[in-house]
Amino acid sequence: MANRHLNRLASWLAGAAVVFACNGIASAADCLRQNALGTSRVLAVDPKAYPRVGSNEFPKTLPLADHEVVLTFDDGPRPPNTQKVLEALAQECVRATFFLVGRSSAEFPELVRRIASQGHSIAHHSWSHQMMSKMPFEQAMDDIHRGIAADELALEGVSTNVPSTPFFRFPHFDSSPAMLDALQSRGIVVFGTDLWASDWEDISPDQELMNVIAQLESTRKGIILLHDAQARTAAMMPALLRYLHKNGYRVVHLVSAAQAEKKAETRH
């Protein structure tokens, strides 16, 4: 099985509830570069219907069609790797969701604004990236709120623990029922994942790509977890995007239902 994937990869590299969905910005047709992958559509996520998503961690995930994927990135912003990831996404006119660590947002606020200015969604990944279940409940929630406040300060210039995009992913997927309930009560969607690149391991960019390809051959869709802080992921991204394009995958961009409704109101 591994040899089959390696041979296929080598051959290929040589050749190269939801409220509603609306037409995506940065679609392939709108992209300035011809034959780009593009973003196929925008999916507005209602936290009341989908409070927790990701089949590896929760019973429910996003209702994606066959060959639809959502690109998500954790642990940034972290130069220079985040910039390299952004360049790869921009080259293909693809929109993603970035789950930021608050202390990194405080250190690199200009990079947070750059992520947002390129049309990506800013989501949250705590302040300190520690194991939340090892903390007392109040300390863990304070860490979550502090991370949100740092992300929002970098993004909007205002420190608030009310996220403009109410998406959160626990570091290491480590939570507790009480924490999950607390975030659900605040209307914050907790993200797990459907597949991952294992890019936290000591592997090459080619091995990372093979990890994703092998899982996609099984799932054929899903939320993909990547880490923009990792140099191997930054190096792998152009090849992953080419693979998605060549094999008929469509990238879905996530926004919150409230953001989508507000945008719809401004158009009328």
From TrEMBL:
<comment type="function">
    <text>Is involved in generating a small heat-stable compound (Nod), an acylated oligomer of N-acetylglucosamine, that stimulates mitosis in various plant protoplasts.</text>
</comment>
<dbReference type="Pfam" id="PF01522">
    <property type="entry name" value="Polysacc_deac_1"/>
</dbReference>
<feature type="signal peptide">
    <location>
        <begin position="1"/>
        <end position="28"/>
    </location>
</feature>
<keyword id="KW-0732">Signal</keyword>
<dbReference type="InterPro" id="IPR050248">
    <property type="entry name" value="Polysacc_deacetylase_ArnD"/>
</dbReference>
<feature type="domain" description="NodB homology">
    <location>
        <begin position="67"/>
        <end position="252"/>
    </location>
</feature>
<keyword id="KW-0378">Hydrolase</keyword>
<comment type="similarity">
    <text>Belongs to the polysaccharide deacetylase family.</text>
</comment>
<protein>
    <recommendedName>
        <fullName>Chitooligosaccharide deacetylase</fullName>
    </recommendedName>
</protein>
<dbReference type="InterPro" id="IPR011330">
    <property type="entry name" value="Glyco_hydro/deAcase_b/a-brl"/>
</dbReference>
<keyword id="KW-0479">Metal-binding</keyword>
<dbReference type="InterPro" id="IPR002509">
    <property type="entry name" value="NODB_dom"/>
</dbReference>
